[in-house]
Enoyl-CoA delta isomerase 1, mitochondrial
Amino acid sequence: MMAVRSCLGVKFGVSGLLSQLTSSTRHHGSRPCVSPILTPQHRNTSSSSTSSKVKVDLDQNTGVAVMHMQSPPVNSLSLDFITELCISLEKLEMDKGCRGLIITSSQPKVFSAGLDILEMYGKSPERCGEFWKSVQELWLKLYSSNMVTIAAVNGSSPAGGCLMALTCDYRIMADNPAYSIGLNETQLGIVAPFWFKDTLMNTIGLRNSEMALQLGLLYKPQDALKVGLVDQVVPEDQVLPAAVKSVNKWLAVPEHARQITKSMMRKSTIDRLTSNREADIQNFVSFITRESIQKSLRGYMELLKQKKA
Amino acid sequence: MMAVRSCLGVKFGVSGLLSQLTSSTRHHGSRPCVSPILTPQHRNTSSSSTSSKVKVDLDQNTGVAVMHMQSPPVNSLSLDFITELCISLEKLEMDKGCRGLIITSSQPKVFSAGLDILEMYGKSPERCGEFWKSVQELWLKLYSSNMVTIAAVNGSSPAGGCLMALTCDYRIMADNPAYSIGLNETQLGIVAPFWFKDTLMNTIGLRNSEMALQLGLLYKPQDALKVGLVDQVVPEDQVLPAAVKSVNKWLAVPEHARQITKSMMRKSTIDRLTSNREADIQNFVSFITRESIQKSLRGYMELLKQKKA
Amino acid sequence: MMAVRSCLGVKFGVSGLLSQLTSSTRHHGSRPCVSPILTPQHRNTSSSSTSSKVKVDLDQNTGVAVMHMQSPPVNSLSLDFITELCISLEKLEMDKGCRGLIITSSQPKVFSAGLDILEMYGKSPERCGEFWKSVQELWLKLYSSNMVTIAAVNGSSPAGGCLMALTCDYRIMADNPAYSIGLNETQLGIVAPFWFKDTLMNTIGLRNSEMALQLGLLYKPQDALKVGLVDQVVPEDQVLPAAVKSVNKWLAVPEHARQITKSMMRKSTIDRLTSNREADIQNFVSFITRESIQKSLRGYMELLKQKKA
């Protein structure tokens, strides 16, 4: 077994908490002001657009967009950030000039630290439900995308960050043993929901998923490659070039046939969430608002504060 | 990722088109005159029978039949050829003296080039439906066979040829890097139906299937071995001897227990098609008769003609 | 293919028959007198209890119990032995002081030889049904345990013995090529039921299971490791220490999250049996009481007698 267990408090191997502890500004409840992403600019060969947390560069010649996540410090998936990601994804999905998408991070050393724990701690059930709905939405948009999607994993990618990578068609990770990737929810005392589990099983199989999910395993890049959690490991400065090379390979396949095939492969997994969204939200809210879980999250946050001090 | 992408127009790595372009005789609509295969000849220790496109040698001592596909030039699966294959399979299945079946090719360099594109191009919906029903029938007969079935893959085996190999209990391939095997339908702009997908997933797992089907991957023998698409790779002249050795190993297992076990493993996959045959036919017909798909097939055929010229 | 086929009559590679041929005492129909296992002894740091065939040592400090199977000569799973195992498991499951369970054997060279053939030969349908119900019960208790379960496989483990190991969270096997493990039912002319099949598929995947079950494969430790049938292979005297190390690693994960995750992974497989227990019993009884199967079992038993003589 090549997997590497999560150590509580590892620098980036946590689900988004660290980001919030060091993040100075938050605007709960306010939806981000959406900047005009990807308005038609067909005279130019490329367009670039930036909302506050998501920067998208679309090459009109190749039809490939690169989406840079830039929500300091560690791309924690807050409601605001997820909302921006969903809006960007929807625009790209509807843009006929965009056929391929590379997702990467602008933040050093981290792809995405996963779901923002602060969205789950001390919040009202309504707010927790709203947050969870956005997480579902992000997964649905990514996992069912008609675009070729490549994860350029240029840093650590625990929990929800790993989930984002898992939704893509292909995953390339930087060969840096300081980085890790995995669904480490149990290490935080919480549980990855069934559709996280399904996505992982679809990628690394049932037995590997059983161990990975129960132990909350975080894999170093080479171990992630061995278990099939990522498809390719390259030197850190080669992650984006390799992603571009890869997306072009996928785009060479007749598009309509590829899209139907992708849909055929993922439909049953997607349907399972689509037909159970409300129940899944209720389930999450009732679990996360339990006193014991809140206490566990608080303990974890305090542990991190101590580590930082 | 060890897989090797399909190159359009590779000599044999196409789905049956090349065969028809170079084939001189075709008799659409006429069913083959079935020669009396495997009539009881219990005084002899072996029987040999040949219809126009299928030669079967049954060794009465061992109970093992070798089925040679000999539909020049590349064993494309036309309606006629499929019909002959089905008739041969049904006779063997009912013959109590036959317990094991080795499927191989008499044609040089190719196992089977897959479904005959000419059966899908410029044909009436009725004819397309008849063709598709025969493809279903071939798969059902092979995948649910009570016999031990071994694929002796002595040449390239794209698309429907790969499917035939996948239905067997065990696959042995010639170690010749000029050969390849895989479900490369997307490369032709068409889509492998759900039961092709199921058969592949049952063999190489979901994630490998997702990549193989979307990219239309053709694997060289050593790569096919690594991914589990074939079980054994041997020197070209050892394919048949290895298949004989293998079939005897499988036949050493108490027969009834083995058959029940095989049925238990495959039943749900078989039931899914059995209970959806008509809808699957309708789906195929409406897809393949679309103008855009017909245009795509025509373009592909013209590309091949140019390559040949 | 690394697997090693079963040889009929291999010393321990049989399903429990050998045990009964050499076992002198049997008390059919009488349930074992249950000794008071694990009554509260919180002043002591460990408790030890022994029923006639099951010895349990529980370390109150670590919360880890070691269950020694000691039903001479080869831990064949008779109705009596299974009943004792189930009672022990239920007590441990309800004991809040017990969080982890290591299952191992006190008998030399064998973990468990599997289901006791004498329970299946020459018995009334009622008795066969009672026996099968106990086998179901053992599987349900083990596969759905809230405890961390580790199989310390310190000897051969065919058929039902392999099943017991497969229910655990993690499997460690002694690196002795004289030992083997696998579901070899077909070699005896019988069929592993669907929930044996499901448990195997959940561990080594569909394709490996299809081969393993049809051929009745027994794997040597290193081959079992390669196919994923066991997770770790260690020198014989390190099996138990490695199991202790492993159970502590699993117990370090927040317990409630781990248990929910385990349940989520296994629920559908467990439900399939739970909702079909009676039909599965009827199916087993009608199969095993067939004259042809009884004859096959008798032939097998006589073969073993000759081997012994």
The longest helix of chain B spans residues 255-274. Chain B touches chain C at residues 169-170, 201-205, 228, 231-232, 249-250, 253-254, 256-258, 260-262, 264-266 (CB under 8 Å). The first strand of chain B starts at residue 46 and ends at 50. Chain B is about 45% helix and 15% strand.
